[in-house]
Design a protein that fits this description.
The protein is mainly alpha-helical and 92 residues long. It is 73% helix and 0% strand. The longest helix is centred in the last third of the chain and has 43 residues.
Length: 92
C-alpha cells in the first residue's frame, strides 16, 4: 500500500484542499450584492461575491487543479519507476 500513499497525498493537496477552500469561501462570502446593483450576469449586473467565487473556481480553478494533479501524479510515477529501476540495478 506504500506505493499509493504519495498519490493520495498529491490528490488531497491538489484537489481536496482547493475544493475545501472554495467551499469555505462560498459559505463566508456575502450572498447578496451591494444596494444599487442588480444581481445576475449580463446587462451590467454582477453576481454576488459567493457566486463570483464559484464562477472563477469553475473557469480557472478546476483546470489548474486538474493539471496540477495530473503533473504531480506523473512526477510521482516517474520517481517511483526510477527508484525501482535503481534498486534492480543494485541487486543485479
Amino acid at each position: 500500500m506504500r506505493g499509493w500513499s504519495p498519490y493520495a497525498w498529491a490528490l488531497v493537496v491538489t484537489l481536496v484542499l482547493p475544493a475545501l477552500a472554495v467551499g469555505i469561501g462560498w459559505l463566508v462570502l456575502p450572498h447578496h450584492v451591494e444596494s444599487g446593483q442588480c444581481e445576475g450576469i449580463g446587462f451590467g449586473c454582477v453576481p454576488n461575491p459567493a457566486d463570483g467565487l464559484l464562477i472563477v473556481a469553475m473557469i480557472i480553478g478546476i483546470p489548474v487543479c486538474l493539471a496540477a494533479a495530473a503533473i504531480s501524479c506523473i512526477v510521482i510515477a516517474i520517481a517511483q519507476a526510477a527508484r525501482r529501476h535503481r534498486e534492480r540495478r543494485v541487486e543485479a
